Amino acid sequence: MSDIVESLQPRFEGLEPRPSADHPSVQCPVKFLLPLIECLRDEFDYSMLMDVTAVDWDKESPRFSTVYHLFSIANCRYIRVVTNCEDDENPSVPSISALFPAADWHERETFDMFGIRFEGHPDLRRILMWDEYPYHPLRKEFPLAGIETELPDAEVAEETDAKMLAAPMMGGPFVSKGGEPMSKSEPRAADESWTEWKKKPSLEKE
Amino acid sequence: METETSQVGYNSKVEGDVIVTRVDAVINWVRKNSVWPMPMGLACCAIELMGVAASRFDISRFGMEVMRFSPRQSDCMIVAGTVTYKMAPVVRRIYDQMADPKWVVAMGACASTGGMYRSYATMQGVDRIIPVDVYVSGCPPRPEALLDAMMKLQSKIEKEPSFKNLGKETVERRTWA
Q: Could you list the residue range(s) of the whole structural domain that residue B121 is in?
């Protein structure tokens, strides 16, 4: 499984295997990201970019890592490449969109959600939220419920008095308490149905 | 006492050709039987909306089969699906472009309340930006539920004063603390 990592290690100094439950995975120094991706594409037949995403490690430093999944159509196998972003406040990594055009929108989404700048990207704009939106929603400090913000259209906002408001969370439907098994913590499980915790009703008295 | 009305009612020469009624009743009868919906399909509810239009459920039985994709030609906006904050101003603009009189049906949990999307991206009910006449529960609602809502809308149209909002701003602002 890690043959490929071993064969790459002499060529890219500082390349480390990462613990992984499924596919080979490498931690790559950011300066080798582009050469490594190109090498995997051209020499190891990883011809398809499946995903670009990122991880926010919250308090740790380096705080942000970007994650790339490559797939080899010829050999039917995956590899995962992880690299740490340089700056914790204004993270950035080089864009791989010159190597894989498919990275374009993936990187725009990662930029939108995490605020990671992809240097050399041809058109780094937000892709899900609108351009003026001030936050990056998948960062750890951003609450799921959201933060009060103006609507994208000022005219409509004035006409309707509507704003982006924090969504109601606890106590509402579809919000589970967490921690317990799903059959206990799901709000809808607190009904008449039987689970592993609640016996099936029976005519016979115990 | 002979009034003009009784003339019409009892004159055997015009009997059967003349109907006496109220203006409201006639106008509302016309309106309720030719509601032209504007399908605002935003998510999976729109699939059920298509089911309502197709042969099994057949919304044309109620005179509503003329789905208009131009807001200028439609009377009733059916908001079918999740309204995100990014989409909300667009929904509002399309509503503004519809000519009076106009009605809104919020179809499904998402359009009514935000549904299962308790998150930063989803507007918690389309009634924050446009006035809703009928809410339909369900995720997504069965086509029968939408038909029921449209029939409820018909009976609502039937009862309202037909010149109620003529030339006036119809938006009832709802304040959210």
A: 38-158
Asked if residue A116 and residue A16 are part of one domain, the reply reads yes
Q: Which of residues 83-102 of B touch A (CB under 8 A)?
A: 85-86, 88-89, 92-93
| pTM for the whole structure | 0.78
For residue B177, being part of any structural domain is answered with no
> Rounded CA gap, B57 and A56, in Å?
49
User: What ipTM is given for this predicted complex?
Assistant: 0.75
Measured between CB atoms, which of A146, A157, A160 is closest to B120?
A146
> How far is residue B129's CA from residue B117's CA, in Å, rounded to a whole number?
18
Question: How far is it, in rounded angstroms, from Cα B111 to Cα B41?
Answer: 10
User: What domain range includes position A116?
Assistant: 3-138
- Cβ-Cβ contacts under 8 Å, A162 against chain B: 88, 123, 128-129, 176
Radius of gyration of chain B (CA): 19
What pLDDT, in 10s, does the model give residues A123-147? 999 999 999 899 999 999 888 888 8
- By Cβ distance, the residue of A128, A161, A167 closest to B122 is A167
Which residues in chain A are closer than 8 Å to B123, comparing Cβ atoms? Answer: 162
C-alpha A24/C-alpha A78 separation (Å) is 7
Yes or no, beta carbons of B89 and A173 under 8 Å apart: no
